[in-house]
Specification:
- This protein is of the alpha+beta class and 226 residues long.
- The protein is 18% helix and 39% strand.
- It has 2 domains: 1-29, no CATH class; 92-225, lipopolysaccharide transport protein A fold (Sandwich), CATH 2.60.450.
- It has helices at 2-13, 20-30, 72-85, 222-225, and strands at residues 93-95, 101-103, 108-119, 122-135, 141-156, 165-175, 180-191, 194-204, 210-213, 216-218.
- Strands 1, 2, 3, 4, 5, 6, 7, 8, 9 and 10 form a 10-stranded antiparallel β-sheet that branches.
- The longest helix is centred in the middle third of the chain and has 14 residues, at 72-85.
Length: 226
Amino acid sequence: MRLSWIFKWLLIFGPSQVGLSDIIENLEDLEPKKKIEKKKEKPRPKKDEGISPTDERPPDITISSPVTPKSKSSDKKKGDDKKKKDQSKLPVKFKGDGQTTYSREAGVITLQENVVITQGDLRLQSDKARVKFLKNANSKEEVDEVLITGQVKVSKFDPNPMDRIVAHGDKAVFYNSEQKIRLIGNARLYRGGDLMKGKQIIYEIETGIVLVDQAKGIVQPEEAQK
């Protein structure tokens, strides 16, 4: 329909007025234009967003090696050793219900009636006591030795009942610097369920060693000690 209309129009107006190029251009305009479909670009997969060399590095983590817990027995042993070592440095306390005398020149104190002398876990009891002092390097008086007589009783407390000490004798001498006790005459020493008897007994406080002169002992079976 459109082509026939164009030729009629040419016959009326003539070829002089309209060029062939114009007709071709008009013909192209009359052609239905094809729709140009733009291809949709498929989304490109994103690159892995890893940590680039320039990114900040995480802080280094240091893993310490596990610490082996100390056994309770080793801690107790160290504590006991320290306690024994410092025993002689503990103050010596004493009291008596009777007359007390002090000689500055001799450095001696005498006590009577229900005498009680203590140093840490150590306890001395008797009717009479004679406490001798010595001056140390700082010119301070310290207890050197203690002599007790009459109803003598020596005791030492320990958390373990089997290591507790109770001793008797006609008299006893306590040597502070050496941490020793010497029981003289009818000496008897009880430790746990054991009894040791002799003419003389020396008890070393720090080591627990007992030395007996002319010893006689009764050792109880383990079942009796429980």
